[in-house]
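Journal club prep — side note

Before the paper discussion, L.F. wants everyone to see what a predicted structure for a comparable chain looks like in token form. Sequence:
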Amino acid sequence: MRLTHAAITPSAEAVGITFEGRPIPALYGETVAAALSAAGELTLRYTQSGAPRGLHCGMGACFDCLVTIDGRANQRACLAKVTPGMVVQRATPAQPAPLAPAPHAQAEAIGCDLLVVGAGPAGLSAAIAAAEAGCHVVALDERDAPGGQYLKPLAASHAHAAPDRQFRQGAEMRARAIAAGVDFRFGATVWGGFAADEIAALVEGRNVVFRPKRLVIAAGSHERPVPIPGWTLPGVMTTGCLQTLARANRVSPGDRVVIAGNGPLNLQLACELVEGGVQVVAVLEAAPFPGFRGVRQALRLAAGAPDLAWDGARYLALLKRAGVPVIWGARPLAAEGEGQFTALRASTPKGEIRLVADALALNLGFQPETGLARALGCSHRFVDSGLGRLETVTDADGRTSIAEIFAVGDGAQVGGARIALARGRLAGLAAARDLRPGLPDDTASRRALARAVGFQDALWRFFAVPEFDARSLADSTTVCRCEEVSAGTLRAAMAAGAESLGAVKKATRAGMGRCQGRMCGATVARIVGASEEAGFAAPRAPLKPVPALALAMEKPEWLEGPSAIPRPILPTHHTPATGPAEACDVLVVGGGALGLSTALYCAREGLSVIVAERGEPGQGATTGNAGSLHIQLHAYDSAGAEEGPESAAAQVLTIGPASVALWREIAAEAGESLGIRTEGGIMLVETAEELRRLEAKVAMERAFGVDSRLLGANELMSVAPYLAPGFAGAAFCAPEGQMDPLRGLSALLALVQRAGATVRGHTTIAAIAREGTGFRAETAAGGVIRAGQVVNAAGPWAGEFSRMLGAPIPVGAAVQQVMVTEAAGGEIMRHLVLHGSRHLSAKQGDAGHLVLGGAWPGVLDGSGRPRNLRPSIEGNLFVAGTVLPALAGLHVIRAWTGLNVQVPGPILGADRRVPGLHHAVTFNGWTLGPVAGRLVADGISGRTGAGRAFSPNRF
């Protein structure tokens, strides 16, 4: 319905749009979500499972309101503005239109004194302060106007004859910023923070890199998730979402609305709806009725901000006059409805109630948008209030642990608009003072900040924040909206051995969707028990989904990728060994795919096995890889194979198919497919000369028994019509394919434990030496393990571990990147696709996502953690785009990096320098893990092992 108000009238022409082929009346300048809500169209899409979804957060954070607009898939209805003749559909088309214009050759670079990310109250205040001090200020915002949630302007579709204080304040600040010379860039999505002076953003569809001297992050907050049964139903939304519909766009998703949660925002929304003609069924407030204890806080509120305190009193009075019950001490229990919200069940001090309504607004607090600050490495702390949240650590001026970066407003520390305004101004002045020394301090802003802090303290004593008990979530309740993961699924993963949030995420896919954990991360953290920043999932570039095409920019490529030096595994100190020693036949050091495979086949030989993994088993490169099942030679391996059938390169050809067969055996034992598909791998070439070299490579592979053949240009397009035209031909390797490494790891780990091996996570081997005919190992925690034989399966750290025993082997490390797109609307490809002369691997997973790799490099940060590089993301997407035209219609939603092994061929088997020491190290470790582990286990058991080609004794 459209709201009515004596002073607010439509000011824009009516335009016609269609939704699912039906005409929808709309106003120019309003959002698609507003037009559809006014028409009663609340179901905007269906998930992969067929569940209906609608508008939820209303600010572009949850990615639930995705629709197809004029052929462009997965557009956020809450941000997209109506245009005449617009065609809106629920389903993703099989061949979506390109999501961005063809990119420039390279990203535009823009320098400035100060870059402000976010133009809400804090960002506007910081920008104004620095610009008025003479700085060149650029301010970015995802919307089409500054103001954020609190100071958002009325949509261009309407005019207000008597704007209230918030509207007036927003207009005044916007005018002041423009007068000061602030350079606003709207429609700007910051997709990556790679350094304080390297901020990547998509501005109106174009990739731009900002190079500021100082950075202010004022990214705002989003409402915290309220995971109750039915919270994913169309018609259930956040209070902020419904307020944006009502306040900015003058619409409501229904005639009858119920509001539940905690805090004064719910009361303000209720009043705005009542004044617009909506029947508010009730406002449910989680805090207990203040009674006499609230008098003291009410006096503090009045003293700290009389105008805001008066607003609160006015809200309660207006609702009382309108007959809207405000029920204190009430909690939402479940949203009901078949396909759409129809009623709320709630607990109250007087018992359970059921309220029938058309829409439900929920607000139980806010989560700061800390992704950019965390990506840049700023320090954060955990705040144990309500659901719990991470906040950015800053000084009194908003300066973070990185001197060039400031973080202010609710995006750093939740505190409301007045704190944001004061802290924003102080940060803007401090940043300007860095560049223009001598600027005076603003004591008035510091006094205003102190008053605002006192007001907030009193406010949240009045509206006491309810605790969140993760145990109260029913197993059937959806926690992750994007991937449709329930609380029960999370608990099952923990029961199966996943300890950290990262391990649970990989085991369940919770937090891997488009919203990147914004709508579930805090809940998952509570369930897992994370209470510090290290326990939360790391932010990934892009920080929000962006069109893959927009970032596709050609970058230089290489023959040998850059190496990385991982942080040492040896601790600086370890607890002295105490207590009795454990004993085993075989100690496997390293719990990745290769170490676990070795343990599996050793245990099946009747040997007692302990796996010592310094982190969580399988949580490194094993589950960070792209899941390709590689068999054919890459072009740069062919020369090595020409050395003869005993060369390491040639022998890899003989074991690859056997390893894929072992993966199938593991899947059969696990009782599920593990996503294994072997429908062939295609290696593309572009020129006749490359095709001649490819022909020699194929002949070599066939000589070693690999089912490989050459495809000419015409046959290639017949086999793979999804490819871009113009390739000279390809090699087709029939047994190649892909699988899901997350499911594969879970299955392998379960089989290892079922076989009787002990898998010990968080166990670092701090010292090891020969003792008699075996080995004595000491752990960093003070444990002792005596083993008859030791397997070095430490991956990138295998060289360091081998040196501990005086038997060094040539093992290096490289940080490598993987990316994934959103799910396509249908099947694009069935093959594994490689490029013969460029860096690319591409495939489509069972869920429809494209997975892109190709060994594009990352880097280790100061803490030793692998990080993405912007040129690698852009370069990888460029190569992928030249191969797969369908990529132009997809968003890239996540890129990550892992630390991979660099070795001159597999190093497998006994080391004659140290009796009882065996090495298990190889490149292509995911594909080759099972067969390499079995070969090492065979050697330990006295059978024929890996042979001379892979022996550590060949060096």
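L.F.'s comment for the group: The radius of gyration is 30 Å. Keep this in mind when we get to the figures.
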